[in-house]
TrEMBL record:
Coiled coil: none annotated. This is Sugar ABC transporter substrate-binding protein. GO terms for cellular component: cell envelope. Transmembrane segments: none annotated. Residues 1-24 form the signal peptide. It is found in: Cell envelope.
Length: 431
């Protein structure tokens, strides 16, 4: 029987039934239900930018279910899985939690509860969510998560910065990569502070280089091996390094802590590639309407391919009150719950109902052009490499430190970098 081993060395048996038996003497973080029908359910998330949206949805749930109290905990992302592993390994942990493409590890370890019986009982339609996200959490024929959101990447520009600099050539819905480079160059020519740069573009391999490879018509993984050593892979590396070498983006070596969204707010950059989970920071900022405008990713080879991923709400297999936990999951991902997420500040909901999408666009209406941009982008996204191939997740830091770093520093050629990435990816896929 396979086992999931937490960083603390505690074991969670692979089968859910075996887990329940082995951990019969343990208790989860919740207090469970009492004799009067009341219950306390714990919920754990990681993103502080989305906490307000989650809390608003939780408040809505508690108003509709006054007998159930929800305890919401936001743990910093770099600590989330460490804390989760330790608590689940001890037979405890939150009743409901966010989960990502790491879900297969937790399913194999028996830490997550299959939701099929609840879905069937309450006649929850999974058609409300994109198939690619539903299937991320369907393992061995069982559904373990209900999708919460979907990642969408777009470019946002600060119109006030363009106006201040006197640059009238601004990004448009139909722009190309060449247009982006030209516009960034015009911005750079007008900037006077050494602390300012024209733009931020995601340079990391997983979400930057990988997107360009797909847009160029290539692949990152195919037939169980890395496939970056291709004309498309080499070109993708070269395109981002060209932005750095022309001083259009911050030097990669200095970018580990660079925040594109915060720099847009401060005006130290004119435009940035921004993920959907950070857009509420711009939409809720104390700036005049019309400051921020959104356009799709610039087309490359006629494509605007960007990576996507989707978090889900999942249930702890050792929860003391699974009925209450399920009620929370069902509500948070329903039309009502997804609308409240959007209104409070959250990533683009995975629930694709017209009312939910309308609520999301209304909540972010201070960002001009969002709906038109998303309408384009959502048609041309693909599952992120680490999402479609979870085994590659563990080697992404290695790729950044041993390949991307030296490449952007000029000590590796693009073809050498692509070859090294393939070797690392192939090794991970064989593990």
């Amino acid at each position: 029987m396979r086992r999931f081993k937490s960083p603390c060395g505690l074991l969670v048996l692979a089968a859910v039934t075996a887990t329940a038996a082995a951990l019969a003497g343990c208790s989860s973080d919740s207090t469970g239900s009492s004799g009067d029908g009341s219950a306390t359910v714990s919920l754990m998330i990681w993103d502080p930018a989305q906490k307000a949206g989650v809390q608003k949805a939780v408040d809505g749930f508690q108003a509709a279910n006054p007998a159930i109290k929800v305890s919401l905990e936001q743990v910093p992302e770099d600590q989330y899985y460490t804390k989760l592993d330790a608590s689940l390994g001890a037979g405890q942990g939150p009743d409901v939690m966010w989960q990502s493409s790491r879900a297969p590890v937790y399913v194999e370890g028996g830490a997550l509860e299959p939701l099929d019986q609840y879905i069937e009982k309450d006649k929850v339609s999974m058609d409300a969510y994109p198939d690619k996200l539903v299937n991320l959490y369907k393992l061995d024929g069982k559904q373990y998560g209900i999708p919460k959101d979907q990642d969408v990447w777009s470019v946002v520009y600060n119109a006030a910065v363009f106006k201040k600099l006197g640059v009238t050539d601004v990004p448009t819905t139909g722009w190309t990569w060449e247009d982006m480079v030209r516009i960034a160059g015009e911005v750079k020519a007008k900037q006077t502070s050494s602390a300012d740069v024209p733009m931020y573009y995601n340079y990391d391999f997983n979400r930057g280089v990988g997107s360009l490879i797909h847009a160029l018509g290539g692949t990152v993984v195919k037939d169980g091996r890395g496939t970056v050593s291709s004309p498309q892979g080499v070109k993708a590396f070269e395109m981002i390094k060209d932005l750095q070498d022309k001083l259009l983006i911050p030097p990669v070596k200095d970018s580990a802590d660079f925040k594109g969204t915060q720099s847009l707010l401060s005006g130290s950059i004119a435009m940035a590639k921004v993920p959907s989970w950070e857009l509420s920071l711009l939409a809720q900022a104390n700036v005049p309407s019309g400051t921020f405008h959104m356009v799709p990713q610039p087309s490359v080879n006629g494509s605007r391919a960007t990576d996507t991923n989707g978090l889900s709400y999942v249930m702890n297999a050792n929860s003391k009150d699974k009925d209450a936990a399920w009620k929370l999951i069902k509500y948070l991902t329903s039309d009502a719950g997804a609308k409240l997420h959007a209104e409070g500040g959250a990533s683009m909901p995975a629930n694709v109902s017209a009312d939910v999408k309308a609520a999301y666009y209304k909540a972010n209406s201070k960002i001009d052009g969002m709906q038109a941009s998303f309408d384009v982008t959502l048609k041309d996204n693909y599952l992120r490499t680490t999402t479609e191939f979870p085994k590659t997740r563990s080697v992404m830091p290695e790729i950044e430190s041993t390949v991307a770093g030296p490449y952007y520093a000029g000590t590796l050629s693009a073809s050498e970098a692509a070859g090294k990435v393939d070797a690392i990816l192939t090794r991970s896929l064989k593990q």
